[in-house]
């Protein structure tokens, strides 16, 4: 399996073969339903958002709390299609990668192609296994959303399949 | 008359939710291992290896099998010759809240479906009670993740519709769900009763251990046929393709009205979390 370093560049994305299995290392953001809604509401009303999306990869997950001494709890992917209504605008603002599970809408697939981005799937329901691939975790925005807050994660050899290119 | 202290019930509910969320059902684990032997596509084998490894990590580290530790559903079968000391429903809630706190599980319940503020306790649970003969109390819990719950379906068929119409509906529900509900899935089906009864049956159907045949031969034949069709869809483990889209099909039926034939499909993921105890 090829090792890929985050943040992703559009040149690296061009090298992916369809459905290629890769191992991701580097930093990414987490966001799921509630954070997506807040980001989009802010962007639509011209307000500043608390993170920069440029060159970022978002992992759709809402982890369980970390036990004392642990980096993070269980943190597998959630269903990506719930984020479909929000994705095209985030891609416009510079998002280049997404990690989740399940199929995406036609609109999202064409937006991914338009912006030269990539959608990865990872192993749904393997939150305990995937937690061992996370080396650091820090809440960076929307702390009040609890498990739905935006985290900055550093991952090592995080397994993913390049599903939509 | 036997008396059971509600404090005991709270403790049992807590233990059941901790077990359900960290210890994969043995029948599911062995079904996943058989699927692993049966698959030939390398991605499907890899996915199943990760899922099996995930179950071991969760058990050893007392870590949630899946980060979606679910909405708490509790089924109580209470013997009519039994007295409960204290507030039963409060005790169940207390057990749920303690399990999610002490187990480091995710609080995934919001206070109102439209306002959507996290209650930060995973409360309230959904509680179903049933009064039965005897002096025991049976407690079944489900930590139901919504990746698969969202893919479930119900349809009110015509009484004159055929079994093959029903099978088609179930297979197309699984096909449309694709990889979203975390296959290999366990398909619970409720047929008959009213709309709500069919849905309730479809969820209870998941409690039957995989590998235990339906006692009704006529129904077990339908289950086998649906499983065969679903596993020809090629969705495979976590959607990477392969032979195992579902591990099993379990149907429960109930008498129904002359004008109706309700059918509910409850999809449950490979991390199906149910466990029970009797006090």
Characteristic key phrases:
heterodimer, A: alpha/beta, fumarase, five-stranded mixed beta barrel, 5 helices, 23% helix, B: 279 residues, alpha/beta, 2 domains, 8 helices, globular
How do the helices and strands line up, and which of them pair or pack?
The complex is a heterodimer of chains A (165) and B (279).
Chain A lengths: L1 E4 L4 H5 L6 E10 L2 H12 L12 E3 L27 H6 L4 E4 L5 H10 L2 E4 L5 H5 L2 E8 L8 E15 L1
Parallel strand pairs in A: 1-2, 2-3, 3-4, 4-5
Antiparallel strand pairs in A: 2-7, 5-7, 6-7
Chain B lengths: L1 E4 H17 L3 H13 L3 H20 L9 E9 L2 E4 L2 H15 L23 E7 L4 E8 L1 H4 L3 E5 L5 H15 L7 E9 L1 H10 L12 H14 L15 E11 L4 E8 L5 E5 L1
Parallel strand pairs in B: 1-3, 2-4, 7-8
Antiparallel strand pairs in B: 2-5, 5-10, 6-9, 7-9
Would you write up a description of this structure?
The complex is a heterodimer of chains A (165) and B (279). Chain A is 23% helix and 29% strand. Chain A has 165 residues and is of the alpha/beta class. Chain A has one domain (2-164): fumarase (Alpha-Beta Barrel), CATH 3.20.130.10. A 5-stranded mixed barrel of chain A has the order 2-3-4-5-7. Chain A is globular and about 45 Å long. Chain B is built from 8 helices and 10 strands. Chain B is globular. With 279 residues, chain B is an alpha/beta fold.
Question: Can I get a quick summary?
Answer:
The complex is a heterodimer of chains A (165) and B (279). Chain A is α/β, with parallel strands linked by helices and 165 residues long.
